[in-house]
Q: What sequence folds into this?
């Protein structure tokens, strides 16, 4: 058999027909020139394969364009109802944990105290400071959080209501941006929809995680009627 | 949203039967490979995301024209190819900042990754595209030929030339590093 020549790429990527592949392998085993070329080719391929794949910075979410003229103008038309319930449920749970972690849980001091911070005055915190102290979701003390809820149920429910209101306001804002763009730039519409759906996805995944944490969170869900 | 893996043909049939939301299943299955293909061509993440969205939008609009429903992915790559080359034509003469070397990639030494990215970026567009489709997307030569609308022999030749150039650039990079190491050791 002659040298690989223009069949080199097909040989390396194993796209030669089976009979030719066998012959080519036999030739390469005996031909130093072809061995060197195959080796060079494989090295470049190997170097290229070391570059990792990257995740898209946001998800593409497709929503059909054609809608009846009588369709609702509210934000709910961008989501099937099945998304809304777990989304809100998760939002409430996240709200609860954020408040528990962000307002009155002293993680660093060792003397952990959980009471949602709503039954006693809390010194005003700057938004920047709040951002600098993220909740450590992996190390939440659910027993103590539950105890905090038990200690002041009305404050807990008021906090949940407030969080839910804020969350819905954010959804409404995004939805109004979509409505404003309804006849405009299709890509921009997709982008905003993508942001909106990502919010729901995040809330859903957080909720799933919380449900997996055990009875304490189960109790929270039951208490606020989200089961 | 519950997105179970499904074969492309089944999903396409659902979409064409009127279940437009099922198109999200195709998006879910092909978004990452298409994004990475485009990213390696245009090298700017935000542009790649825009072009990725545009590709899926076109695919949805033209889905009825797909003759062989078992060959959705080469068809989708062809659409992405057209979208990218349309952008290349618009952007001719402009200068861009290249891909952020820190985005999503920390497993191999930075100097190796930069060297490979630089070598890849230095290839002419048609050669780079063949390399990307072959090495990262795992397409067959005849599929790449259909995407590029070129003979298979041309595609193979582009891959070969691309690899030869990359080998040369990567060898130079290694030599340069060795030389720097020797200088600093003195």
A:
């Amino acid at each position: 058999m002659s040298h690989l020549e223009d069949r080199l790429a097909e040989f390396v990527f194993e796209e030669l027909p089976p009979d030719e592949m066998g012959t080519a392998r036999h030739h390469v085993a005996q031909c130093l020139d072809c061995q060197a070329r195959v080796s060079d080719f494989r090295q470049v391929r190997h170097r290229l394969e070391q570059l990792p794949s990257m995740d898209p910075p946001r998800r593409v979410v497709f929503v059909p364009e054609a809608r009846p003229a009588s369709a609702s103008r509210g934000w709910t038309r961008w989501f099937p109802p099945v998304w809304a319930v777990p989304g809100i449920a998760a939002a409430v749970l996240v709200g609860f944990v954020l408040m528990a972690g962000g307002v009155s849980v002293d993680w660093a001091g060792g003397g952990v105290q959980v009471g949602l911070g709503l039954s006693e005055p809390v010194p005003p915190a700057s938004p920047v400071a709040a951002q600098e102290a993220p909740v450590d979701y992996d190390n939440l003390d659910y027993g103590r959080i539950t105890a905090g809820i038990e200690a002041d149920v009305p404050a807990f429910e008021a906090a949940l209501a407030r969080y839910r209101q804020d969350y819905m306001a954010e959804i409404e804002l995004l939805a109004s941006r979509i409505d404003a763009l309804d006849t405009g730039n299709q890509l921009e519409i997709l982008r905003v929809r993508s942001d909106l759906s990502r919010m729901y996805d995040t809330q859903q995944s957080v909720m799933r995680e919380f449900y997996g944490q055990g009875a304490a969170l189960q109790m929270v869900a039951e208490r606020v009627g989200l089961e | 949203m519950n997105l179970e893996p499904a074969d492309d043909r089944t999903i396409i049939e659902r979409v064409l039967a009127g279940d437009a939301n099922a198109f999200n299943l195709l998006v879910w299955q092909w978004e990452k490979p298409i994004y990475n293909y485009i990213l390696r061509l245009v090298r700017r993440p935000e542009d790649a995301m825009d072009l990725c969205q545009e590709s899926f939008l076109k695919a949805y609009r033209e889905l009825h024209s797909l003759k062989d429903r078992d060959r959705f992915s080469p068809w989708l790559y062809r659409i992405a190819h057209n979208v990218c080359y349309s952008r290349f034509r618009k952007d001719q003469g402009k200068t861009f900042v290249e891909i952020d070397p820190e985005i999503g990639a920390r497993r191999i030494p930075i100097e190796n990754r930069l060297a490979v990215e630089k070598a890849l970026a230095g290839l002419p567009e048609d050669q780079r595209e063949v390399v990307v489709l072959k090495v990262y997307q795992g397409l067959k030569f005849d599929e790449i030929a259909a995407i590029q609308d070129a003979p298979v022999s041309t595609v193979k030749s582009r891959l070969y030339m691309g690899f030869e150039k990359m080998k040369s650039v990567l060898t130079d990079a290694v030599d340069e590093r060795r030389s720097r190491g020797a200088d600093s050791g003195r």
Summary: Chain B touches chain A through 48 residues (CB under 8 Å). Residues 1-99 of chain B form a domain with the Rna Polymerase Sigma Factor; Chain: A fold (CATH 1.10.1740.10). Helices of chain B lie at 8-16, 23-42, 45-62, 72-90, 110-121, 125-136, 141-148, 152-185.
